[in-house]
Amino acid sequence: MSKLSNKLSLHVGSKIGLKNFSFSQLILEVKRLFDSEGIPGFVKMMVILVEGLLIKSQVTECPRCSSNKLQMHGKCGKKMKTSIGCVDLVLSRMKCVACKKTFSPMMRLFDVDPFSRKSREFEKLTLETVTNQSFRRSAKNLNDTMGFSTAHTTLHRWFTNTDVVNMNQQMRVDDIIADGTGFKKEKDDKGSNRGEIKILIGYNKDGKVVPFGAWTRASWKDIGTLIKKKNHPSERIKFKPIAGTLITDGEEELVRHLKKLALSHQRCLFHMTHELTPLLRYQDMAGKDEAIKISDELHDLLYLELPEADADPLKSLEDKLIIEAHILKMKKSIDDFILELKMMGYKKAKTFVENAKAQLFTYIENWVKTGISNPRVTSLVERIMREIKRRIKKIGFKWSERGAETMTRLILLQLGSTKYLWENHWAEKIGIDADIKLTFLGVTVNQK
Known about the structure:
This protein is of the alpha/beta class. It folds into 3 domains: about 25-115, no CATH class; about 125-160; about 175-420, no CATH class. Helix content is about 45%, strand content about 15%. Strand 2 (about 85-95) and strand 3 form a beta hairpin. It is elongated, with a radius of gyration of 30 Å.
């Protein structure tokens, strides 16, 4: 198809009084003109020109029978909501001589649903808006900014029907991190309004975060089976784990069903000390100061500072033996700590630490083998969970399970470390590589 290359003239009517002239007022009036009439009108005119080129090129075919014998069949109006305003389009309709079907060539070129009333870039803007605030407030902010109204129920419908949250789950990463949080949902048949969001994200040594997904209607068993199936092409070959290390808060069901996805398991050290304090206070009935003191002791036993650079720090057998001896010393300190808890009568705390001790020093053992340490804490996912909790707990409640799942996935995609996934999706969907270039050549003034 040929390219359209033209110079276009911009005609603006002006009435300017020099008395009490204000530069700021001129700026505001120019902005008002282009926001409300200029830019939408310019887009409308460009569509007319492109449509004329499309019809004259005679490359348009009937979508039903592929015939190129077409004739004009009138005009149809279409109003599109965009980020530059509401654009009123007048599109030609063509009729196929062979099968009598009528259609709009421009709608096929736009590649949008015939009944759609929004551009894709405006859809992107609305989804980014509702991710940060309620649907009602999003509607108000968009209405104030865009100059046209969009009902909050319409935003909710677009949110519900979006396909952007379909995530790729067939990939391999350095580490996988899993966690969950509760939320208030619509009451089910049993009268319960307690729901749970489960998320699984991947983490690579280059700092890139890749979300596998978020689920409200699946168990950890279902999630583990799904991820394994996506990455296991044939039952005839042995499944190869998709990650080096699984990092969790130690939830038994989670670990049981996801540990097959990784070569090793690391308990989150933050959760160890964070959960030990309330366990001592409310299960073993220790005093507040005593519980904090014991938790601080555990913290000191768990951490070993390792180089952040991904390089082999063990340059000789002697270095390796020194580190291995240090690991044994740390494990012996944990055994002594467990014995101390037993002697003090703190049975719940003793069992808690004892059950976790085998996965506490995976980060050091991996460092000894490879020179690369996996994360020791789920702080990355904790930051993500805080943002999820803010949106689905503080801004909104009585979610449907599907709605909470969709919102969580939108948040995962729009966070700073994963935003490249969001932008890449829309770049492909909008067509950023389209061959369109406009140049401002100046303004001609015709004085009367």
